[in-house]
Amino acid sequence: MPGRIRLRHVALNVRDLEACESFYREVLGMDVVWRPDADNVYLSSGDDNLALHRVSEPNAAAGQRLDHIGFMLESPESVDAWHAHLVDRGVAIASPPRTHRDGSRSLYCLDPGGATLQLLYEPRAVKPAGARDGRDRGVRIDAWER
Length: 146
Prior knowledge:
The structure is a single chain. The protein is built from 3 helices and 8 strands; from the N terminus they run βαββββαβββα. By secondary structure, the protein is of the alpha/beta class. It folds into 2 domains: 7-56, Roll (2,3-Dihydroxybiphenyl 1,2-Dioxygenase, domain 1); 67-146, 2,3-Dihydroxybiphenyl 1,2-Dioxygenase, domain 1. A 4-stranded mixed sheet has the order 1-4-3-2, covered by helices on one side. Strands 5-8-7-6 form a 4-stranded mixed sheet, with helices on one face. The protein is globular, with a radius of gyration of 16 Å. It starts with 8 loop residues before the first strand and ends with a helix.
């Protein structure tokens, strides 16, 4: 391979730009980093970037398929704290928190546009002592040695 790649940007076509922007800002705590015009907004929670593009008809019929977008969390307890926060805000929960066989813990919810979000704690993604070279950015530990 020519080098390691990192997922940093996701773009969603949405019908209700205002409702989706409000959800990502007010419920998930993301910040607006750029608004080039009335039909597009870019948000971030740090090293990531989420673009929301207003459309009259989503392009799912043209073959665009998205299963879900994952947001990494710092601990299994944070999954439960986020669940309580989302329920308190009236967010639709697709799957409540559960612990998986590998020790990860997650929940699934829906944004106002219907996109499925996974909030996930994964033990292998936690920064080990002495990690360097950006290895604390959600990269799986077992992938570092490849």
